[in-house]
Amino acid sequence: MNKTRQLTVLVVATLTLASCGWFSDKDEELEPKELVDIKNSLNVKRIWSTKLGGEAEYLLVGLRPATDGDNIFAASQNGNVFALSPANGKAVWKTELEVELSAGPGVGEGTVAVATKDGHIIALDSKTGAERWRTYAGGEILAQPLVKGEYVVVQSIDNRLQALSLFDGKQRWELEQIMPALTMRGASSPLLVGPRVIAGFDNGRLLGVTVATGDIEWDSMLSLPTGRSDLDRLADVDGSIAVVGQDVYAAGYQGRVASLAAESGQVLWSREISTHVGVSADWNSVYTTRTGGEIIAMGRTNGSEIWRNDDLLRRDPTLPTPFHTAVVVGDFEGYLHFFSSIDGKPVARLRQGGKAITSPPLAVANALYVQSDDGTLAAYTVVQDRSKRTAPDISSTADES
């Protein structure tokens, strides 16, 4: 690695810590906001918990559980890949790859794909965990691979998007965007909407790309680089992208949250909000965590603000995940916070453990799956109290705050 690239990596790492709330130009001396007692009105119960292995604290890797509708799949930083029973968390299979993993798993078409720290993609059989192939993708990958149809689509932190053959891992096509002088550490995970891949890049652009050929169908500037310094001009689209029907929702750092038409890239609405975690959505609302820790809900059809909550300022909250009648975020102390999706008021809080939660929780039907940075995966559910007409209090468990 040459000196210029070493300097770039160091600066990017520093910027990442700054963006995550460790320090900032305005709040440098401020501590994370203290948690206050809340009245729990959502009955959240832990179903099971399992240790995946391999702590990834502050490495900002892209490890997050995924599902194919039958099993829950998860991967650890030290190379373990699991298929787990959603009912009890017991391993259906476990594969030890003996490499450091940086992203995944991506799941689809009977395949589980993970990315290694040194830039390889490894494909496993989703039924058995047996390795099918591995190939070098050419750069570090921090985004979940997209597995769909005949392709495994991967995005690396050097602003390259490529499609690999699902069958043997050979490259089908590749496209590259101009790399800014400075970037934040991270990459958004590509999504497939109809025949096109939606992907965001560190130059502030969101692209619609034909999955079969790699041709760019449309190109939208989501976050325009402005300012005199490279720091001021950071405009990365690194966070999660959401899709509801044919509408795409995305956000850029020091840019805007926007809704776009998937077929044309036309901006339907936008709001000036800076976030590095991206957006999530349900049928009614779009959610984001603003740089600094404020949680914001907007109307899905017009972007109008519905509510905002500043309870988690400087606590490094994750992207909100819609779940049940709430949205859920994790924080740097291992707490899970549940806020009403209607008005943003806190409805429950519990603690998974003492380590940070940096990956957004995964909601599947009435279950919530949360992977913390110490390599623990836990599952939660909302318990309905049929003996009461009103919402019950949260049950007393040893892991509550």
User: What is the count of distinct domains?
Assistant: 3
Structural class computed from helices and strand pairing: mainly beta
Give the C-level CATH assignment of the largest domain.
Answer: Mainly Beta
CATH homologous group name of the largest domain: YVTN repeat-like/Quinoprotein amine dehydrogenase
Described by the principal axes of the CA atoms, the overall outline is globular
Main β sheet profile? 5 strands, mixed
Strand share of the residues? Answer: 35-45%
- Poorly predicted regions: 1-28, 231-235, 389-401
Number of strands: 33
Report mean pLDDT, rounded to a whole number.
Answer: 85
CATH architecture descriptor text of the largest domain:
7 Propeller
Features:
401 residues, mainly beta, four-stranded antiparallel beta sheet, disordered C terminus, single chain, Thrombin, subunit H, disordered N terminus, 3 domains, Lipocalin
